[in-house]
Amino acid sequence: xxxxxxxxxxxxxxxxxxxxxxxxxxxxxxxxxxxxxxxxxxxxxxxxxxxxxxxxxxxxxxxxxxxxxxxxxxxxxxxxxxxxxxxxxxxxxxxxxxxxxxxxxxxxxxxxxxxxxxxxxxxxxxxxxxxxxxxxxxxxxxxxxxxxxxxxxxxxxxxxxxxxxxxxxxxxxxxxxxxxxxxxxxxxxxxxxxxxxxxxxxxxxxxxxxxxxxxxxxxxxxxxxxxxxxxxxxxxxxxxxxxxxxxxxxxxxxxxxxxxxxxxxxxxxxxxxxxxxxxxxxxxxxxxxxxxxxxx
Amino acid sequence: xxxxxxxxxxxxxxxxxxxxxxxxxxxxxxxxxxxxxxxxxxxxxxxxxxxxxxxxxxxxxxxxxxxxxxxxxxxxxxxxxxxxxxxxxxxxxxxxxxxxxxxxxxxxxxxxxxxxxxxxxxxxxxxxxxxxxxxxxxxxxxxxxxxxxxxxxxxxxxxxxxxxxxxxxxxxxxxxxxxxxxxxxxxxxxxxxxxxxxxxxxxxxxxxxxxxxxxxxxxxxxxxxxxxxxxxxxxxxxxxxxxxxxxxxxxxxxxxxxxxxxxxxxxxxxxxxxxxxxxxxxxxxxxxxxxxxxxxxxxxxxxxxxxxxxxxxxxxxxxxxxxxxxxxxxxxxxxxxxxxxxxxxxxxxxxxxxxxxxxxxxxxxxxxxxxxxxxxxxxxxxxxxxxxxxxxxxxxxxxxxxxxxxxxxxxxxxxxxxxxxxxxxxxxxxxxxxxxxxxxxxxxxxxxxxxxxxxxxxxxxxxxxxxxxxxxxxxxxxxxxxxxxxxxxxxxxxxxxxxxxxxxxxx
Lengths: 296, 507
Hints:
The complex is a heterodimer of chains A (about 300) and B (about 500). Chain A contains 14 helices and 11 strands. Chain A has helices at about 1-20, 30-35, 40-50, 70, 85, 115-120, 135-150, 155-160, 170-180, 195-200, 230-240, 245-255, 265-270, 285-295, and strands at about 20-30, 50-60, 75-80, 90-105, 130, 165-170, 185-190, 205-210, 215-225, 255-260, 275. In chain A, helix 8 crosses helix 14 (about 285-295). In chain A, about 50% of the residues are buried. Chain B is built from 22 helices and no strands. The two termini of chain B are about 45 Å apart. In chain B, helix 14 crosses helix 19. Chain B folds into 2 domains: about 10-35 and about 295-505, MetI-like (MetI-like fold), CATH 1.10.3720.10; about 40-295, Orthogonal Bundle (MetI-like fold).
């Protein structure tokens, strides 16, 4: 009798497994998956075509995305920036949007913004808020940017800028929130940030500082780690992200330039695109440089 | 039979053995991943944060003690003023409230007037967090001064300073060394205040640096080096000063009636001013959170899934680690009682292993060494119960030893042992300290941000971590609302504890 029940039980167990939708776990940062980010809509549209259950697991600190701990049990990682050492070990990766790091200011409050990066580091009247390079790719971006612009003198430049920084926040949202509450004159973000205020709030007084020295162009990547259990669906997701429809959603909700030029919204097209510069130093090198500059 | 008795006797070793295991596992695990080829590079950064950790902790302790002593002195001198009683009673609760609420409050109020990020903010945070503890302890000792001494000073016609030096100072002086060491210790391993108010690597502690090394850089070597450095420094402080530290009970009021004949007079106007200023300093963050918490998002928060799920997790972690902590403490107390020759000081040694160190060790153990499927909540509960052990011990031991001594003979004569003895003989009299110890360790586990940072996930988050996440996303109104709800949660926890104690008093 018990045997019979057991057999039925196991049959049920197997059948539910057979008919259950496969779950695909996407690790990303908070603001991508948040209700105001592109995450929910992408989830809905992808589930329509893949017959699977897409689930986001998020971290508030995008710097942890490529950490061994976060990588564990994830089928896809979304939103990481390039890191040669780590990327070699991935099964597949692909860029889905990009942006240029830039300082944002409020035209009504800061009437004499610095015109060049060189002027910026030599000012002493500005309150700047940036992200911690250890925890935030945007914060790391600033170090790469300064390394590209100041080359041999980067240590001195980082040290000078550090004097004007009120705080290094763990993530982007906190820094940008402080800036919007007028606790800082400048905030580190992307040159596309004014697009958000123009498109959704019809506000035009937030501007990006475009420096003639050039800016770092950063791609955001979607990654299939080696241990992913859903490589086939993962690849489907990768090509899905670069379709025009999704690219438009990403541009409008993630406030970044889409990889497909045809998907750029018109107001974003009107923004000035900075000149791109390249950084040659490794992240580790820059972090230790920064740590030494910041403790002075 | 003899063998059985022997075995029974050996069972007392279980609790200390579990604690020994609980500490050695993370230490060995952290060491397991150590790469000897890399060695130890004592960089400028490490020396900078080591120096800063020590410097800020000593300065914070000094300031907290000065302000707390002045506060206690004025509170006792002017205890006739209406409301002072409430201030004194809330001080003991204030000390165990989640740190993140106070720090968030400081950031929100003082951030409007000063540059709170950096050294100033950290000092301010540590002072506001520790003044209640100092005040409570000094207040208690000042209260025990016999009125005769004051009369004597009066008769000798001593002036203000003369009276102070003759009557109060000798008693205060006795408490200062242990308080100073304890607060330096708390500030040295400080995590939440530094994480939120630090603002730059210049103002960081070893505890935060360990967290960064593991979570963001995957640098286990650096983490292990920092960990050893921290243990060495904490160990030195401990062995030099802490050995003779006598713990005090911080929460239970003795409710002695204290009456003076003084009335409010303009002579003391400066003292009233100082009293008011310190009260404002200490209570402002909590009051501010209370006011800001009542906002439009409060209903949104109450309707949200994330709040209730975090509340459930907080309750589960608090409750279970409280129970586990009590069981372990009790087992150890029984062990200490049976082995009179072993000293209790090794119990306090646990305090050397900061939450960061244990969390890193267990993190490596569970993620890198054994690929276990043990759910994270179990790990969080275990670590929390170990970290709160010195506190539960502190609250439980005085009553336990008293009760145990009194009941020893009678239990032996009527032949009651073990759990039977506990429920029949000891429980009725130990209920009160047990409940208090349970509450404190639950609240401490609920306040933790270190361990949950390592093991928390989207689906597994406490209220404390939820507040930190909301702050990180700059959803400040929601963060205020959740902070208020966490405050209410803590108060309910304490009310239950007090109610149980009161019920006992009434019978």
